[in-house]
């Protein structure tokens, strides 16, 4: 009786796996390298993401964004920014390509220092700001395999009233 129950359970698992094999994958993780980022972004900027695919047209994504380092035009200091975002994706698949649009919210933090160049003694002022802003953008991805895709993405947002618009190239792994 135990052997029969085991065989039935294993058969049911194999059948359910073969039925689900044609369906899309539901979770993914990825990493992107930004070409353009926060203001003039002197340092390496990148994004790490994880997402849940609701169906072929909608997904939900969580992101960590290292927005890099920025310096004012007068060279009086430097600021580093990072952020976390929650985004909803609307997707339009065309063969192995997928066009998508994103809309969400980004919570950011900015740290650095700035010299008060207009004062004679030029004391250094420490800066630490936090806030949130809408984040939105568009992208296109290409499925290399069923599990791997490459993407190009452009996002728009602001960090402390400065543009944070990363243009990035990335990879996603679905499972």
Report on the architecture of this protein.
Helices cover 11% and strands 66% of the residues. With 175 residues, it is mainly beta. The chain has one domain: Beta Barrel (Porin). It has an eight-stranded antiparallel barrel with strand order 1-2-3-4-5-6-7-9. Strand 3 (58-70) and strand 4 form a beta hairpin. 25% of the residues are buried.
Chain-wise SSE layout:
Elements: H1 2-20, E1 27-38, E2 46-55, E3 58-70, E4 77-94, E5 97-115, E6 124-143, E7 148-156, E8 158-159, E9 162-174
Distance between the termini: 35 Å
Number of strands: 9
Helix coverage percent: 10-25%
Structural class: mainly beta
**Which value, in Å, is the CA radius of gyration?**
22 Å
CATH topology: Porin
Strand arrangement across the biggest beta sheet: 1-2-3-4-5-6-7-9
Number of helices: 1
What's the quick description here?
This protein is mainly beta. It has one helix at 2-20; strands at 27-38, 46-55, 58-70, 77-94, 97-115, 124-143, 148-156, 158-159, 162-174. A hairpin with an 8-residue loop joins β5 and β6.
Task: Give the tags.
175 residues, mainly beta, Porin, 8-stranded antiparallel beta barrel, 1 helix, 11% helix
């Amino acid at each position: 009786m135990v052997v029969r129950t085991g065989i039935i359970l294993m058969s049911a698992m194999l059948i359910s796996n073969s039925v689900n094999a044609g369906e899309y994958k539901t979770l993914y993780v990825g990493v992107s390298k930004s070409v353009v980022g926060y203001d003039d972004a002197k340092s390496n900027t990148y994004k790490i993401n994880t997402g849940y695919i609701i169906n072929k047209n909608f997904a939900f994504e969580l992101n960590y964004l290292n927005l890099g380092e920025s310096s004012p035009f007068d060279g009086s200091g430097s600021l580093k920014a990072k952020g976390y975002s929650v985004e909803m994706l609307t997707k339009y698949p065309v063969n192995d390509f997928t066009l998508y649009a994103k809309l969400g919210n980004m919570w950011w933090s900015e740290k650095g220092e700035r010299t008060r160049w207009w004062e004679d003694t030029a004391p250094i002022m420490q800066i630490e700001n936090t806030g949130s802003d809408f984040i939105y953008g568009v992208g296109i991805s290409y499925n290399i395999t069923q599990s791997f895709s490459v993407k190009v993405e452009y996002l728009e947002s602001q960090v402390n009233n400065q543009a944070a618009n990363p243009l990035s190239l990335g990879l996603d792994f679905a499972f």
